[in-house]
Specification:
Layout (H helix, E strand, L loop, with lengths): L2 E6 L8 H16 L4 E6 L10 H8 L7 H19 L2 E7 L7 H10 L6 E4 L2 E4 L5 E7 L16 H10 L4 E7 L6 H18 L2
Helix pairs in contact: 1-6, 2-3
The protein binds flavin mononucleotide (FMN).
Length: about 200
């Protein structure tokens, strides 16, 4: 049985390509694996706070000395970590904003990348604790970053692979829809190609 954690981070609730692709994938996956269960975490419809004073205090304070606000901030972080740990497949829809990921997704990352919970320090250096899981990322971008002059500006896939790998998620598949702002023909081809790759992935 697969339990999917579906994370959405596009602020476009009407016509987002990353939402469309990731939802299509999850629906296809459920059709071919009927016992699949899904938890959805929409970081735009239900935003989570950025890493602030209370969460930082909650991370590093003595448990018996935490304020109510620190306890509440830590409780949300614990819930998000538990949600990730419960999933066997993590699916993330990600628009490119300013060459990187949306701040809403970065806020989620800041809640779940935690020493002692999702990674730990060993004599050989940090080691991920979120093992045995797969991730599928659906990336959307106006320009082209997989090759060409803007490749060095890609802090979307490179960052996500790095941070997921850091906590132990190394089985990562990426479906890109890129060149969406380069004219109608380019956008139509990017979407069709990404949908074809998405359909092939869910079987
Ligand atoms: C605030 C903002 C910043 C963006 N920055 C970039 C960028 O740096 N590079 C790029 O190629 N496209 C950029 N875009 C275009 C989006 O990546 C593109 O519209 C993509 O389809 C968004 O994903 P979505 O359709 O899932 O919402 C930006 C769009 C917005 C709204």
């Amino acid at each position: 049985m697969t339990h999917i954690l579906l994370i959405q981070s596009s602020s476009n609730l009407a016509s987002s390509v990353s939402r469309d692709l990731s939802e299509t994938y999850v629906n296809d996956y459920k059709a071919t694996h009927p016992d699949t269960t899904v938890t959805e975490r929409d970081l735009v419809s239900s935003p989570i706070p950025h890493l602030g004073v209370d969460l930082l205090g909650g991370f590093f304070g003595k448990p018996e000395a935490l304020t109510e606000a620190q306890k509440a901030a830590l409780a949300l972080s614990n819930t998000l970590v538990d949600e990730m740990m419960a999933a066997s497949l993590i699916v993330i829809g990600v628009p490119m904003y300013n060459f990187s990921i949306p701040s809403a997704l970065k806020a989620w990352i800041d809640h779940v990348v935690r020493a002692g919970r999702t990674f730990h320090y060993t004599a050989e250096g940090p080691s991920g604790l979120v093992t045995g899981k797969k991730a599928v990322l659906f990336l959307a971008a106006g320009g082209v970053y997989s090759n060409g002059p803007y490749k060095p500006y890609d802090f979307q896939e490179t960052y996500l692979r790095a941070i997921l790998g850091f906590i132990g998620i190394t089985d990562v598949t990426v479906i890109r829809a890129e060149g969406l702002a380069l004219g109608e023909e380019s956008a139509a081809k990017a979407k069709a190609d990404a949908h074809a790759r998405t359909a092939a992935l869910a079987v």
